Amino acid sequence: MGRASDLQGSLLLINAGLLLIGAWITLGFAPAAADGAELAASRHPLALEGYDQACSQGDLVACNDLGVCYHSGYGTERDDAMASAIFERACRAGSADACNNQAALLEQRPHGATHGVSVRELYRRACTGGSGIGCSNLGALYAGGNGVQPAPEYARSLFERACRLGSVVGCENLAALAPRAPEQAARQPTSARDFEG
After folding, report:
1. Which domain holds residue 51?
2. CATH number of the domain encompassing residue 71
3. Which run of H or of E encompasses 18?
4. Segment (H or E) for 121
5. Spatial distance between the Cα atoms of 140 and 132, rounded to a whole number of angstroms
6. Model confidence over 46-64: pLDDT tens digits?
């Protein structure tokens, strides 16, 4: 099973690509579409300055985007320690996306924990806070038994919630699970709209 551990930023392109790892799909993070990459790269220093200023004034979306800039090296040198500190602070203040991104950073480290907060706990906070990708990432942990006791039905419920929250990744992960019964195969959702209809 693959790990679901890529970062998302609200103003940077979030769903630029999907990467299939095993049976689980994770978010592929890309800085910009190919045609606009050069233009976007030239504006990153200004974006970094704006995110920093807005974050200092308590804007949690800007804090999350600032962390993504530090993690990805947009407008600055790549600095995962700084990104982690920003995500941690924004997560504690209530940003579900920052909780997801903090967990994604921790998942890349050995042992997956810092200051006693586990990857599982951070994804749980993200999911509880309304992050569809956070629910999908938590579901992937339970589906694959990555650092937790495998719990396929709990994983399914997390993927369902992720899909309801609009996460395409969550819907794809749900579709990748075997249906509970043959008669449910035809009803298996493949997009967030399938849950709404």
Report:
1. 17-196
2. 1.25.40.10
3. strand 17-21
4. helix 119-128
5. 12
6. 888 889 999 999 999 999 9
